[in-house]
């Protein structure tokens, strides 16, 4: 059983690697852990089909950092804007490695403990679906592909009889490695599929 103290202990033992890329825009996502009757789960969305970019893709709640915001503030603000779930800074229990995307962002993943959560209110302009995913569903080995466009391997994380790609797939794989297994596995080198480069 993984509880808040287990997650906090694992993250405290992990040294997250930042990425210093002033040429890229800063952003943050939340790995939002909720308490379910069967155990902890995390919130995963599918982006609304009406969005201009990355429509229908699996995503963690998050977005671009506003001036003066830290990663935790960004993740919590975006969580509220996307799903109507408001958390204060006491929910923040750690961060994972930064990940630089092909679309021009550096993402900081922030782990948030939300505890028991009632009905969510997804913003239909941003979110097509929201799922509460049990942690055991990401405790799987990913698949790695080679593509002619890059020397780096493309990560595919099996979930719901489909695959979640980077950046979300890479972030969730690192969470699994660090929090569920205590391994300081790095993922910043893992590639996104070409369809996500835009």
UniProtKB/TrEMBL annotation:
This is CoA pyrophosphatase. Its cofactor is Mn(2+); Mg(2+). Signal peptide: none annotated. It comes from Pseudonocardia abyssalis. Keywords: Hydrolase, Magnesium, Manganese, Metal-binding. The keyword Manganese applies. It comes from the Bacteria. Pfam families: NUDIX. Residues 24-159 form the Nudix hydrolase domain.
